[in-house]
Amino acid sequence: MTEVGAGSSPGPAGRRRRPPSDVTIHDVARAAGVAASTVSRSFGRPERVNIRTREHVRAVAEQLNYRPNPAARALPSGRTYTLGLLVPDITNPFFFDLIRGAERQASAAGYTLVLSDTEESPSREARTVEQLHRAVDGFVLASSRLSADRIRQLAADNILVLINRRVAGVPCAVADNTDSTRQLVEHLASLGHRRLAYLGGPRPSWSNAQRWEALREAAQEKELTAVRLGPYPPFMAGGPAAADAAIGSGATAVIAFNALLAIGVLRRCADRGIRVPEDISIAGYDDIFGADFCSPPLTTVASPIQDVGRAAVDLLLGRLTTHQGRREPHGVTLPCYLRIRDSTGRAPGGERGDPAG
Amino acid sequence: MTEVGAGSSPGPAGRRRRPPSDVTIHDVARAAGVAASTVSRSFGRPERVNIRTREHVRAVAEQLNYRPNPAARALPSGRTYTLGLLVPDITNPFFFDLIRGAERQASAAGYTLVLSDTEESPSREARTVEQLHRAVDGFVLASSRLSADRIRQLAADNILVLINRRVAGVPCAVADNTDSTRQLVEHLASLGHRRLAYLGGPRPSWSNAQRWEALREAAQEKELTAVRLGPYPPFMAGGPAAADAAIGSGATAVIAFNALLAIGVLRRCADRGIRVPEDISIAGYDDIFGADFCSPPLTTVASPIQDVGRAAVDLLLGRLTTHQGRREPHGVTLPCYLRIRDSTGRAPGGERGDPAG
DNA sequence: TTGAAAGCGCTAACAG
DNA sequence: CTGTTAGCGCTTTCAA
To answer: Region A23-38: what's the mean pLDDT?
Structure first.
């Protein structure tokens, strides 16, 4: 700030207008009495610089308020220090905490996050990856709607990590619903329910398949009947159709692919004069904003979704730093938990109840 | 794809590993039989290239699947084709549609959006702007928590556009609550309410001041009493304190700074056995996700927030292209509208009602 | 209208 | 451990 104000040096850049203000590595080098490469190393490879030199350089840089130019860093190194995060629906509250977790972790590591909303479209998703290819160092694909093949293709040219999706050879962070689905089924069984309906979500959703599978197995163990309905759009707007089908199915308890759909079902029941949980019990996946204040408050299977977002970014950063991601891809699995609220209760006419009856 | 596969040319780059694959402008130039600068111009300054040359170059580029390297574009030109969007709380549903509107508009114009969550912290907000300074072409600051002075300072070194904030000399897109606040007050007056309480939000929030001001004036016109309480944290967690204060104030109708807070108030009333709207009427600003299915559904003042996001990006792009933003800063104002639901009703004991009584 | 050439600010061999 | 030297891929004068 004191002597080498932006543009004050008639140095090597000559008369050419240097993009608005801003101190370069050369200004720092000159002021510190070292070569530009030493300044560069002091930041990028500190271990290769004498500690005293490094400290001096950093002090000078600080004093000059030096900020590296991201484009200039990226050009020779190919590293942008930017990560891409793709989500299928940015307006779904489920993704809020995922985004926040990812963003915190990224910025803590000095990375910038580019968020992109693919609006449930597989082609938009693929196109976005291709467009951002050179602009980011890697991608996190949350709840990808792409086929496994397409994901593998993209993974050949891009470093990527999946969230809530498993594809052989691609690292991932997933919330495992298996245990909590079993708990949910046990909860319903203990309330006397014998017949369950699952309201399916988008066909390309891996979670959708995982949830149904876990539900089917748990039901079988408990000797309950489980039917699969749908698929329905994973929004509140999917509620009416899903609710009507569920009611028609004769099930006494309904488990929806996600809480958005479950809330839609709740509203449809209210409109039709069907009481929850007296006439029918409703539960859903994803403990989103609103699940606790809809009416009645919704029993859900909750994902530790902020941790999942964080973990995915960690995985990605690991691949980026560790020998350019050639390592065996690994995955992290985080357990979900059951949140019982008021939308589930005794099966109508069912006699066997829990002791708290 | 046919003859100049990535790295197939032993050209000027020599043996140095070219960052993974990818066709450069030189590959296109060679294949098209023109100079690299002509390829560059064919995209960036098409009007300065013979139409036939341009078309040919583009065809070749297409065929080779050429993608410009963003860092390389940014370095000499200083333009990154990236925009920064800062929001105070990414988990507040209010911002979802704003983000979606901004993102759509940005990507339609070929820009990438970098989203940053400032978590209600003015210092984080300022720091983020400074860090992203060279990484983006301009910023949209949504509901900024910075002081007017700090905003002006930042506006000196950065191109920026505000959302829901007015600062002289800085362009902005704002949702105007004035008319709809008046409508809300009239609605309450017609239900017999004489005494209103406003539950204030964050002091640095401009909307907060605007809302109170509009409310105060409208109340005065209608000869109602209005008291201002708070400030309260603009989350559901602020509900209990706000509700207790409101109830204690003797007001029969309560207007909360935002819907998050209003929903928190609703819950507190339920816990305390106070009936809404029989004992007290509740309304809030921002027609967020959940406002229509909380219980009772909330009367709100709704912002056309997706349009506001879109408009802000338009303004920013305008400044970016039109002579580098030297133009007189202009602002757009979008009107809000009132959504009456079940959380507002007759004043307790009030006799004068609306004709629909 | 086009080509040649000079960088943008930084990183990364390679010497020393 | 540090300096010198080439570029990274693109844009932008400047001439032709």
So the answer is: 94
